[in-house]
Design brief:
The protein is mainly β. It contains 3 helices and 25 strands. The chain is elongated.
Length: about 375
């Protein structure tokens, strides 16, 4: 308004002017987002749905996480978005305060995906990307803003994937075996509306060279113990994800990538731990005969092994001539037969040792391969 034009005001004066002009009390907004450092982000812990009379009532349990912020935000208007199998949407605004909130929202359809801040009206400690997928697209793309590469292998019908990169640490508790330390700075949440039988792959690049890098606490010295951990939702324990490949190159640089060879919906975080904890119990004898072909190889190799009596998962590891691990991946043997195709396109030229291990860290067999660029 003209009476405020061409003047300078303090933050407190601006708060009072905006409150007076808009009719909204902006005290909480200024206290949380202007006067104190850091950011907050709201995430859904769980949703309980009941149906009746042609409508659906949804009770949302919401958790507020903080990044470099001294206290929880209050009186925050947040959009809740619901999507059904046909991509129909319903948006509703709810008011959230404190570490935990419980709200109820009604829709006239049954949603298959529910998420927060879908219209991006709130500045949070999170970036997100919705990606529509179609059967003939063959997507292999770095998704904007979320530090995530999505690779589409098989899709019988159209679908949507939502990737949220949350710049705050998840709660550091409820760990399964083999997890030593979880990243306290960020994690990912993958949701979507997808047809049955979908086959997707994910890939993230990590960096821990500088103390301000998101992964510094995990890989500033070595990436040898770096792993992906997974949970379907916050009610489940974190477990070592079995379908992952570490592509580190030199494991002392603080940079590299991790591949999610099979992408499930759920939450993923980087951690330090023992990838062999994801290997299911092996039954029978450990005698194996491992063949690697072709060798030399440029883009991939086939690993094939025969066991006397063996059914279960195994760990595959590649080491360079200096003894540094370059790739770590999981595979499965069935009825004494094992076959796995291994992507080596990112490996530098040279000789590598291939090892198969069981869940106790025992070497089943070892051979070599030659990689050419």
């Amino acid at each position: 308004q003209d009476e405020y034009a061409y003047n300078s005001y303090s933050a407190e004066e601006l708060r009072d002017i905006l409150t007076d002009v808009s009719g909204y009390d902006l005290t909480s907004f200024f206290d949380d987002q202007i006067f104190k450092p850091g950011f907050a982000v709201f995430v859904i812990d769980s949703v309980q749905t009941s149906a009746g009379g042609g409508t659906f009532d949804h009770t949302l349990y919401i958790h507020q996480l903080l990044r470099e912020c001294p206290s929880y935000y209050t009186n925050v208007p947040v959009d809740v978005s619901f999507m059904d199998q046909n991509w129909e949407m319903h948006h509703e605004e709810v008011m959230l305060s404190g570490e935990y909130s419980v709200v109820t929202v009604q829709t006239d359809f049954e949603p298959v995906m529910t998420y927060l801040n879908g219209q991006n009206r709130l500045n949070q400690s999170r970036l997100d990307h919705n990606k529509a997928l179609y059967p003939d697209d063959n997507i292999n793309q770095n998704l904007d803003h979320v530090d995530f590469r999505l690779i589409q292998h098989n899709l019988a019908d159209s679908g949507i994937v939502r990737v949220e990169h949350i710049w705050a640490g998840p709660e550091a508790s409820n760990f399964g075996p083999g997890i030593f330390e979880i990243n306290s700075r960020h994690y990912w949440r993958i949701d979507g509306v997808l047809p049955e039988g979908y086959e997707l792959e994910g890939r993230i690049s990590y960096r821990g060279v500088d103390e301000y890098d998101l992964d510094y606490e995990l890989v500033s010295e070595t990436e040898e113990d770096l792993i992906f951990i997974y949970r379907e939702d916050p009610s489940q324990p974190w477990t070592v994800y079995p379908h992952q490949t570490l592509v580190a190159g030199n494991i002392n640089t603080g940079t590299g990538s991790l591949k999610l060879d099979i992408l499930y919906l759920g939450e993923y975080a980087l951690a330090n731990g023992d990838v062999n904890a994801a290997v299911s119990e092996i039954h029978g004898e450990n005698n194996a005969v491992l063949a690697v072909y072709p060798s030399p190889a440029r883009t991939y190799v086939n690993l094939q092994a025969t066991f006397e009596s063996y059914t279960g998962a195994i760990s595959i590891e590649l080491y360079d001539t200096l003894g540094k691990r370059a790739i770590r991946q999981m595979g499965t043997a069935l009825n004494g037969e094992f076959f796995h195709r291994l992507d080596i396109a990112d490996l530098p030229r040279g000789m590598y040792v291939v090892r198969l291990l069981n869940d106790r860290g025992e070497v089943l067999d070892t051979t070599t391969l030659s990689a050419i660029m």
